[in-house]
Amino acid sequence: MSQVDTPGEKPVIDIAVRRLMEGTPKIELTAAFPCEGPFEVQLPIWRPGRYEVGNFARYVYDMMGQQSDGSWIELQKTSLHAWHVPEEIGRVRWTFFADLFNAGSTGVAADILYINPVNCFLYLPDHQDWGYAIELTDVPAGWPVATGLPQSNGRWQARDVQHVMDSPILAADALTHLQYESNGIPFHIWIYGQDQPNPDSFLADHVAFTDSQIAHFGSFPAEHYHFMYVLPEREVRHGVEHEDTTVIAIGPSAKSQTQGGYDELIGIASHELYHAWNVKRIRPAEWTPYEFAQACPSRMGYVAEGVTTYMGDLFLFECGVVDLPGWCRLMERLLDRHVNNPGRLNSSVAQSSFDTWLDGYEAGVPGRKGSIYVEGAVLAFLCDVRIMQLTGGEASLQTAMRMLWEQFGMERIGLTESDYWSVLNEVAGATDALDDLRLHYADGTEDSWDDLVAAMEWQGLGLTKNHRDGRWHVSISST
């Protein structure tokens, strides 16, 4: 492969996207690569925020290359996720299935174009520093476009592969747009859907948890941030974090007007914003940087998702979006899932983190593994209380997370398990302060119930469980 010279500029891959609305919804993508063949193009096999193999090539209908005479020929695969581009071909065209509207997918309809580039954009494995220029060829001029990408000369620009794959794009005939500012950072809320939450309370709650999270971390890691809500008329509940964006999907859209649906939206939003620090910057070494061409298992899913689950809910309480009874209800639902999953006593949360790459986010074999969200959050709660106990309330798990942000996240240094536990012990005031929690509940499979009861009691709360109708039911009450 030889590169086409671009004096003084970094090469850019031009990608044009258009909707194909006849029959099954699809998109057609055409890419002009700034090089001469032969070369190989690759489609990611997984996406950040979902720690399993996604096999996005299964959504590709065809892969064509344009010859010098203008005709198109079929390109041959070199692996399940890569294609060979012969000499004399610099333009590639492919058709991609686009009828999925979860928070990490790609979907189109008459009034919307929603793209997660990590599903459907090709890249050159040997040139991941090359930029992208993206043209939405059939989006009407009057449609609002929500994305964290900058725009220049009518096209959306990405600096490299890591940037483009982490930058969803939402364009629609009608997008509600709310704005606010926190600590000098502009925040945007974009909402697509027939039924939508009350804008005044929705905006106020975003301001509250955003202010609170930034105050605890001391700074925000992006120059701007976009909450992108996709509320389709189909069953879905999902959120995905990105560097300066999150996509949150809940449907049918009428759910957003119920108290339960509204609470879900706010809960997911707080969770995803916390990811702007934890995972997007405070990131396990195995995912620094992202390697899209292969599975990247890590034992630290309990930090990535468990800590975020616990902190996302805690900040709703800290900022006043939910009261103490509301936080107790959130913990009751979490602990219900905890006590009713025997897999937590079979596979440690660290091993379950590693094994998401085996069977994804499915329940899998009964009783084999735990949830990195649930078991990770339970462990985060125990760590939080332990640190507060040992420091007389002068420090907490959030103190440790801020230190991790300052020492690892700001510099984008990959985090190891040893790094994580070392910082928690340092904040707690002793090199072995949390070693038993790590041994028993991160690396081990011991039952944490007694420690949970004691931790709740230290906070002035009573924790009980009773067995009825074939399952355990958890209750938290003020003592």
Task: Give a short summary of the structure.
With 479 residues, this protein is α+β, with helices and mostly antiparallel strands. It has helices at 117-120, 161-164, 199-217, 259-275, 301-318, 324-339, 349-359, 372-390, 397-409, 417-428, 435-442, 449-458, and strands at residues 2-3, 12-20, 26-32, 35-36, 39-42, 60-66, 72-74, 76-79, 82-85, 91-97, 107-109, 112-115, 131-136, 145-147, 151-152, 155-158, 169-172, 176-182, 185-193, 225-231, 236-241, 245-251, 461-468, 471-478.
Structure, described:
The protein has 479 residues and is of the alpha+beta class. It has three domains: 2-172, Immunoglobulin-like (Sandwich), CATH 2.60.40; 175-275, Neutral Protease Domain 2 (Neutral Protease, domain 2, Orthogonal Bundle), CATH 1.10.390.10; 277-479, Neutral Protease, domain 2. It has twelve helices and 24 strands. The radius of gyration is 23 Å and the shape is globular.
Helix percentage range: 25-40%
Task: Based on the coordinates given, report the CATH architecture of the largest domain.
Answer: Orthogonal Bundle
Tally of structural domains: 3
**How are strands sequenced across the largest beta sheet?**
7-6-10-3-2-13-16-15
Radius of gyration from the CA trace?
A: 23 Å
Low-confidence stretches: none
Name the CATH superfamily assignment of the largest domain.
Neutral Protease Domain 2
